[in-house]
UniProtKB/TrEMBL annotation:
GO terms for biological process: L-glutamine catabolic process; pyridoxal phosphate biosynthetic process; pyridoxine metabolic process. Belongs to the glutaminase PdxT/SNO family. This is Pyridoxal 5'-phosphate synthase subunit PdxT. InterPro entries: Class_I_gatase-like (IPR029062), PdxT/SNO (IPR002161). Signal peptide: none annotated. The active site is at residues 79, 171, 173. One of its GO terms (molecular function) is glutaminase activity. Keywords: Glutamine amidotransferase, Hydrolase, Lyase, Pyridoxal phosphate. CDD domains: GATase1_PB (cd01749). Pathway: Cofactor biosynthesis; pyridoxal 5'-phosphate biosynthesis. One of its GO terms (cellular component) is glutaminase complex. L-glutamine binds at residues 46-48, 106, 135-136.
Amino acid sequence: MRIGVLAIQGDVREHLRHTERAGAEAREVRLPRDLDDINGLIMPGGESTTIGMLMAEYGLIDALKERTREGRFPIYGTCAGLILLARDVVGPSPARLGYVDIEAARNAYGRQVASFEVGLDIPCLGSEPFPAVFIRAPKITRLGPDVTPLARYQGEVVMAEQGPYLVSSFHPEMSPDIRIHEYFIKKVESLSPVREATS
Ligand SMILES: NC(=O)CC[C@H](N)C(=O)O
């Protein structure tokens, strides 16, 4: 499996490293042609207005619309990546993909100085809490009926999935734990077209 990491802003190197440790090949994605030979994409955190603007400028929004048309190209959006995958955004609304039926409120977990780490219970990863780092994180303020919640913090959903798309309000690459990357890779494997036998 080959996973792309959107390399516009954020912890690109950490996501590449976690992806490789979790057993997949990892590639940086900047331009539409970088999407050709990957099976899924991770969109790191950063500043969603800037990332969305550059994605639109590089032609990546249109290229991803094409690539995801059959619903078999998984994308994991973390933090700003969640905002770019959200159908609705409260406040200033960046150019984005909007594939997940959620509403996201930007910076709703406080400013940079209010960043924090918590041990989150994420049942699909097993019983060990996941060390989740929140940095000016978005809150999910509405969850559509087809979206499955995967984790909550103080009663509010902070990780969810809908079909091939996975989102988390927090940064999974900032701790050594690679279970979310492993979870995403399994999702990619389950949706990747089976190669035809050559003989
Ligand atoms: N760490 C992050 O990705 C923060 C997201 C940022 N607050 C935004 O709205 O774009």
